[in-house]
Design goal:
Rossmann fold; 2 domains; 7-stranded mixed beta sheet; 4-stranded antiparallel beta sheet; binds zinc ion
Length: about 280
């Protein structure tokens, strides 16, 4: 059986898949036979998910991890500013608004969307920008309004990445900059290290997980999404989140491998692209 759930590939429309994981029924992890996109199907019941992202969830971000997160956001903003000088910036899934705060301090006009009511309220209270609580599509921003739209580890959580990227294109100015960071499904070095350390493969989906990834992107499928939704000048490089030291060391090996061989086998992808 190549399509146990009647799935249709969000990226290319294909209906034939390879089953990657099938022990968490009714959900399957499937890989599209045409474009290679990996997805969870059917979409699990996410009712109540927004309430998981509460004060507790963000407590460490705002305290113990504050300094390291600050460094991460500064690094990301500096990379952005090499491509674009301050203008209108939208951060999709802005959480408590740390990135927007930093950008605002450097002269950007900022907007954010955020699914968690707690985080949206927090960001709204700490920023001069406007924070919309809900999905990007429902915010109904004006066409060709933003200079930059960012999705920092958000696209893997949304039910329809294609529609989110189409909306990002609609609201970006011509030649506006899009940045998308997602985990890399081809994080082969981490997968090998995990298998050695734990004696089993790294899983892509487990029922009841707090942070469910509905889609798993590679450099190729992310690039295909961006081309399909009207972006060019696409550059994909490693993204560095915050993580434990052991994982950092493994990722450093993967990044070194990338610089030596060009293979994109590191933990997370950061794509920069411009609106056509
Ligand atoms: Zn496909």
């Amino acid at each position: 059986m190549t399509n146990p759930t009647g799935a249709r590939c969000n990226l290319c429309g294909e209906t034939r898949f390879r089953i990657v994981e099938e022990d968490q029924k009714p959900q399957y992890v499937l890989k599209c036979l045409r474009c290679g996109l990996v997805c969870v199907d059917p979409v699990p019941d996410l009712t109540g998910l927004a309430t998981h992202y509460d004060e507790d969830y963000y407590a460490d971000w705002l305290a113990a991890q504050k300094e390291e997160r600050g460094r991460m956001w500064r690094r990301r903003l500096e990379a952005l500013e090499k491509r674009c000088s301050p203008g209108r910036l939208l951060d999709v899934g802005c959480a408590t608004g740390t990135f927007l705060q930093l950008a605002q301090n450097r002269g950007w006009q900022v907007w954010g969307t955020e699914y968690s009511a707690y985080a949206a309220r927090y960001a709204g209270e700490h920023l001069k920008g406007e924070i919309f609580c809900g999905e990007l599509i429902d915010a109904r921003y004006e066409e060709a309004f933003f200079d930059v739209v960012t999705f920092w580890h958000v696209l893997e959580h949304v039910a329809d990445p294609l529609r989110s990227l189409q909306e990002a294109r609609r609201i970006l100015k011509p030649s506006g900059l899009l940045i998308v960071a997602v985990p890399n499904v081809n994080d082969l070095v981490m997968q090998a290290a995990y298998r050695v350390a734990k004696g089993r493969p790294l899983r892509l989906f487990t029922q009841g997980e707090r942070e469910i990834h509905l889609f798993h992107f590679s450099a190729d499928t992310l690039r295909a999404y961006l081309r399909k939704t009207g972006f060019d000048n696409i550059r994909i490089r490693p993204d560095y989140g915050i993580t434990e030291y052991s994982k950092k060391a493994v990722n450093a090996a993967a990044v070194a491998c990338y610089y030596l061989t060009g293979l994109k086998v590191f933990n997370a992808l950061e794509a920069h692209a411009t609106r056509t």
